[in-house]
């Protein structure tokens, strides 16, 4: 908005300028707690379930879980075994829908600020 773009122009920029990011987003699924359950993104190797487990997991019903044991070497003290649970249902994000929601809110705020200034 501050750059003078319309919502449609913003979405077009996303579609045209970021095809690889769009593809990775379309292939990334989150569980009901917001954890990445599966992604094909090359930048997120070993994040989420392996494909063979994902194929089973995406069939789960609401509230059902699938677990994965991983070796976590991100904390002091060396590697530790952790169990990660992913809770169905699984969903993808929709950046364009998020843009629409944010855009509407920013317009509401801008119009509210204009109305207050006019008083």
Task: Detail the topology: elements first, then pairings.
Blueprint: H1 7-17, H2 19-26, E1 29-30, E2 36-38, H3 51-57, E3 65-72, E4 80-87, H4 95-118
Antiparallel strand pairs: 1-2, 3-4
Summed up, what is this model?
This protein has 119 residues and is an alpha+beta fold.
Structure in words:
This protein has 119 residues and is an alpha+beta fold. The chain has one domain. It is 42% helix and 18% strand. It is built from 4 helices and 4 strands. The protein has helices spanning 7-17, 19-26, 51-57, 95-118; strands at 29-30, 36-38, 65-72, 80-87. The strands form 2 sheets. A two-stranded antiparallel ribbon has the order 1-2. Strands 3-4 form a two-stranded antiparallel sheet. Strand 1 (29-30) and strand 2 form a beta hairpin. The chain is elongated and about 60 Å long.
Overall helicity: 40-55%
The sequence of SSEs as H and E is HHEEHEEH
Rg, alpha carbons: 20 Å
Number of helices: 4
Mean pLDDT: 91
Count of extended strands = 4
- Cα-to-Cα separation, first versus last residue: 24 Å
Spatial shape: elongated
The structure class reads alpha+beta
- Which strand order does the major sheet show? 1-2
Characterize the largest beta sheet: strand count, sense, and whether it forms a barrel: 2 strands, antiparallel
Strand content: 15-25%
- Number of domains as seen in the coordinates: 1
Flag low-confidence runs: none
């Amino acid at each position: 908005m501050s750059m003078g773009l319309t919502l449609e122009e913003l979405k077009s920029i996303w579609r045209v300028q970021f095809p690889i990011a769009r593809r990775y987003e379309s292939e990334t699924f989150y569980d009901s707690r917001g954890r990445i359950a599966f992604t094909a993104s090359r930048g997120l190797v070993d994040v989420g379930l392996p494909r063979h487990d994902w194929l089973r997991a995406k069939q789960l019903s609401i509230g059902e879980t699938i677990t994965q044991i991983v070796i976590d070497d991100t904390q002091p003290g060396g590697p530790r075994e952790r169990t990660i649970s992913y809770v169905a249902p699984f969903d993808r994000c929709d950046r364009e829908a998020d843009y629409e929601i944010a855009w509407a809110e920013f317009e509401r705020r801008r119009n509210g600020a204009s109305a207050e200034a006019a008083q």
